[in-house]
Amino acid sequence: MADKMTELGAQVTQALKDSEQYHALATAFNEMKADADTYKLFKDFQNIQLDLQQKQMAGQELTDAEMKHAREVADQVGKIDAIKNLMEAERGVNSMLNQLNKTITQPIQDIYEG
Length: 114
Description:
114 residues, YheA-like fold, 5 helices, 88% helix, 0% strand, extended
């Protein structure tokens, strides 16, 4: 059974890589990354988000200064078309993955509803 699941996983991986959404994401990422300043801002934004999430998960209070800095960077990110395009492409991939998850877990849901 494990071999069958591994094979199925490989098929799903290939289907993802072949999808329009995946190609749109890869293109948007490469276009964003081509501008060094935009890429640096994007990485800074990711690091800020990760840091804030880790603090929240650890039960630490976020300071006003941290929140203000996060909002400022988010505002900068929101003004850059390349990053906006990347985020739109991410939404497309997430939508596809959510649909896949729903399809895969439907039999389990049917058990609990039946």
